[in-house]
Amino acid sequence: MSRSIVMRGVAALLGIMLLFAAGTQPAQTATPDTVRVGRAVVNAFAFAVLEAGIDAHIWDKVNLKLDISSFKGDGQLQQGMTAGSIDFGLGSGPAMGYRAKGVPAIAVATMYGAPSDMGIIVSMNSPIKSIADFKGKKIGVTTAGSLTDWLVHELSRRQGWGSEGIESVAMGSMEARVAALQSGEIAGTVQDIGVGYELEGQGKGKVFNNFGNFVQKFETHVIFASDDMVNKHPDIVNRFLKGWFMTIAYMRTHKAESVKSIAKVLGESDVVVGRLYDNDMPGLSSDGAWDLASVTAVAKSLKDLGIMDTEPDPKTIFTSKFVPVKI
User: Do 236 and 187 share a domain, yes or no?
Assistant: First the structure.
């Protein structure tokens, strides 16, 4: 047998072996798409779902890598959407109205219903004993036209004092509002309930009320997507929402792991975040589907806040194209 024939036989055998080996190797994972996600504030349990999903490797399952940034209120978040610096935003229901102001983004899924994760925090030695004591007082909020701002004015209206019966003071960050609370500059501050739990543990403040007791129908937090994402990359929108709600499902059955992840983000103890978990998890949507009555309440709030001159048609401030999400 000639050497050339032998060599051809060896080459053929090697080729077969390589083909077989290639067929038994796992397929290479495609490079994940990086998406830029902004949240209105950093100190909110609901927004830290992002990191809970990262720690549980859920975003890997939808082939996404998150580039997360935090803002100091809805106004700044929507500026980020306008500037094109973020693809997805986690913000408040009232921020849905910014689309009418030209922000190239739309709410694609509800995240949290009635505002049971928000409350008024007062100092530990506060003279405030009842809601009536807030009449004419100042309460700190993030920014004008934000959810925290609306909650103050809605509480005033429900007490029969009109929109200005309580004065809201836009102060930006949580730290600024807590400092103003301690100095007596403001009588209270609208915060995530977790801030109140933390201040209680430090002996510096306490949760005075839970807004879920006053407002039963509302879209407290929603997920926004840029127009570019919605129009050009609907698959990424679908994957982002799937990753989000897969994380929610995971969190419902993995309290200890979820508390550990979120405690790192919030800079709070496991004890505080454990209380937050029990308070907040029931309010988190499982599929992002909209409740029209709740969206209608948001639409009304847009006129109340002065974000829009007239109350808009609720169906124009969100899209149901991507929900409900099936996982």
Answer: no
